[in-house]
Structure formats: C-alpha cells, structure tokens
Specification:
The protein is mostly helical. The chain contains five helices and no strands. The chain starts with 6 loop residues before the first helix and ends with a helix.
C-alpha cells in the first residue's frame, strides 16, 4: 500500500534527512575531533586477525559504508518511509538517503578542495611577492 503523505513532501523529507546523515558520517570519518577513533579503527581494520573484526572496524573508516548504519539509525528514530508504508518503504528510503548523503559529501569535498587550492595559491603568491619586495 502506498503512503498517504504526498510524494512531494516525502521527497523534501528525503533530501532533508540526508543532511544529518552526511554531517554525522563526514564528522566521524574525516574530522579531527574523531582522529584518534578513526586511526584506531583503521589500525584494527588492517591488522586484526579475524576478517570479521577487520570488516567491522572498516565500516567506521569508509564514509559510504558508515552512511548505511547512520541511515538505519535515522530510519529507526524517525520511522521515515518512502512511497510504500511497509518494509519496502524503509528499504527505498534507506538506499535513497544513503545515495543522497554521499552526493552531499562528494559536493562538500569538492568545495573543500577548491577552498584549500585557493588558500595554497594565495600563500604561494604571498611568498613570491615577499621575495620580490626584498
């Protein structure tokens, strides 16, 4: 059975729910605040004796993999479903949120790379001008 909520509202929720997923995943996998935890997980994903333990810790080092788990938590908290009001709605919503969250993270990464490139180019120009003025 289809959901009674209009599809437009469902789509808006889909794009909105992907934002906190992307934010949480990016913060845990990439930001300095979780650096020690990230390094611990990387070490265990490479050096653990059991393949199951390696895969478990790898899930916290891969933004795509980790986004599935954050999405599952979000779906559990919100009960959000997409198109259908049964298990299919959760499945469609889950994979859709994961995909959109990863698009958001990809775009964010491109923006950060552009900012870093501009910053480095500015520093290079400053050093050139410093060398000329001396």
């Amino acid at each position: 059975m289809q959901l009674t909520e209009p599809l437009g509202i469902q789509i808006v929720k889909l794009f909105l729910f992907a934002i906190p997923v992307a934010c949480i995943v990016w913060t845990v996998v990439h930001e300095e605040v979780f650096h020690e935890v990230h390094e611990f997980c990387v070490r265990h994903s490479k050096n653990a004796k059991s393949i199951a333990v390696q895969k478990f810790f790898y899930l916290f080092t891969c933004e795509y993999c980790f986004s599935h788990y954050v999405t599952i938590a979000l779906l559990w908290i919100t009960g959000f479903q997409l198109i259908f009001d049964d298990w299919r709605g959760y499945l469609i919503a889950g994979f859709s949120i994961v995909w959109i969250a990863n698009v958001y993270m990809g775009l964010y990464n491109i923006i950060r790379l552009d900012i870093k490139t501009e910053t480095l180019e500015s520093k290079i120009e400053e050093k050139k001008l410093d060398g000329i003025s001396r």
